[in-house]
Amino acid sequence: MPGLVIQSHRTPLPADWLTTCIDSVRRWAATADLDYRWLGDELFAPVPTALLAKTRTQPVVATDLARLYQLECALAEGFDPVVWLDADVLIFRPDAFALPATGHCFGREYWLQADADGRVRSYRRIHNALLMFRAGDPVLPFYRFTAERILRTFRSEQMVPQLLGPKLVSALGSIAQFEVQESIGMVSPLVREGLVNQDRALLERWAEGHGAPLAAVNLCASLSANSPSVAVAIDRLLQPTTG
What we know:
Blueprint lengths: L3 E5 L8 H15 L3 E5 L9 H6 L4 H19 L4 E4 L3 E3 L12 E11 L5 E14 L5 H15 L12 H11 L3 E2 L2 E3 L2 H9 L2 H9 L7 E3 L2 H4 L4 H10 L5
Parallel strand pairs: 1-2, 1-3, 5-7, 8-9
Antiparallel strand pairs: 3-6, 4-9, 5-6
Helix pairs in contact: 3-4, 6-9
């Protein structure tokens, strides 16, 4: 069987620009000879009821766990590799975006933001807006097992949205040295404004933080869903000279 790309989001979509992102992933999957699957609320079907109940007030946490179950189910169906891409991921250079030959990979988060004094600070982590696993690789079951253990020990009020996403994969990845796809990045609000304003110095710093040419980005809908500047940033990224 071919590989499979899975995406999901609540509907109706909260912003028109998300359609542009989703379409970019559909097209890329087709050119990469990967099957594509869109999930609605059935995303959560494989998750144990007790864990879903515990994440009732944290839908992002629930989604971060559910994607792991869905990827495991897809591997069990025979798809190989299996890929998760968040609905706010834009693949703006599909010809340069390819899955590695490794058994797993995560995305790179090189986050830029200004501190109270206006100085730009950088934070280099891993994100789960991209997940890729191949049959037999141990990272997916290990990740899911660890995520479940955390949920069983945390109280609901202790959970933050990033608990099972960037916080967990960055912590595990710093020790286990997870494979990271440097070509898919994360757009912070500061970088988004840099794209809009064509701040070359800031964008060069952002690109250099990846160590590889960027071909896709997570546009952080949780921080920017209703911002009119997102559509402008997308236009900038889709220009041939961007990046």
